[in-house]
Amino acid sequence: MPRYDKIVVLTGAGLSAESGLATFRDKDGIWARYDYRDVATPEGFARNPSLVYEFYNMRRREGSKAKPNAAHYALAQLQRQHPGEVLVVTQNIDGLHEAAGTTNLIHMHGEMATSLCTNCDARQPWREDLAAELVCPECELVGGLRPNVVWFGEIPYEMDRIAAALAACNLFISIGTSGNVYPAAGFVAGAIEAGAHTVELNLEPSDTASYFAERHQGAATELVPSYLNTLLEV
Ligand code: BJW
Questions:
Q1: Among positive and negative, which fits the CA dihedral 225, 176, 184, 150?
Q2: Does the annotation mark 109 as catalytic?
């Protein structure tokens, strides 16, 4: 019987930083170049859809070239080899967890390789650029396609499933996230309430670092494989 048999792992932009994808709030991050109100809110999209399409088209092109790093692979290995349940909840919209082999995965902030139709709610694989004049392949209406991402003021995906997993977990690990954005920043409190051991792995202490029982600082590609290996040792 492993020490922890129900593990929830929350990941953020820091996990994909060493795959060459920018974080949001670091010095050279995305929010240093863009105002989040313009590109990551429904109001910004209504005001200037072209800017938002271009922002996500650029990130989709960059994301399609990125490769998983050692931290993504270590998480996939944990899921394959650990005898307990391991759920990965990612805030990242890139596809690097899947590319590394992670299967039990929730993209709570959406996925950049899919579109969302505001007319029929269909979410569909989308590898090309998105634009206002495109036709939804599902309902065949023009003008409803948008990036399938969760903007500020919108409700993240699969919150019921995440809440149930947190309520049942006995280990919660948070990796490469600033603890700035809710509801993800509140997951550690939910895990503590469930009686779980809580661990933060991050380059710098996050905004919620003081909540965690155990904290390790360092780059994800070093820290994540070495920490997760300790969970696989009997
Ligand atoms: C490394 C590293 C390396 C670097 N190795 N580590 C007031 C109080 C509380 C809440 C609110 C409030 N006012 C408004 C709210 C709610 C709002 C919110 O939280 N606002 C805050 C800013 C205050 N939240 C929402 O609106 C959310 N919806 C919501 O609350 O709905 C209500 C509801 C919820 C639940 C049930 C019922 C109702 C929606 C939030 C949507 C966030 N969307 C974005 C953009 C869309 C996707 C995209 O474009 O990619 O998601 S914002 C952006 O931030 C993106 C990220 O997923 C998210 C989190 O960022 P992350 O991953 O933490 O990145 P960074 O850059 O912040 O941090 C990187 C970390 O990595 C750092 O710590 C580095 O140290 C570390 N690092 N290199 C290891 N190599």
A1: negative
A2: yes
SS3 147: strand
Residue 142 neighbours by CB under 8 Å, 6+ apart: 133, 134, 135, 136
Give the separation between CA 159 and CA 184, rounded to whole angstroms: 10
For 11-35, the pLDDT digits (tens) are 999 999 999 999 999 999 999 999 9
Q: Would the CB of 25 count as within 6 Å of ligand 1?
A: yes
Choosing from 72, 97, 107, 109, which is the catalytic residue? 109
193 lines ligand 1 (CB under 6 A): no
Instruction: Measure the CA–CA gap between 49 and 216, rounded to whole angstroms.
Output: 41
- Looking at the DSSP assignment, which residues form a beta bridge with residue 124? 115
Whether ligand 1 lies within 6 angstroms of the CB of 182 is answered as yes
Cα–Cα distance, 21 to 214 (Å, whole number)? 27
Beta bridge partners of 200: 174, 215
Is the overall model pTM greater than 0.90, yes or no?
Answer: yes
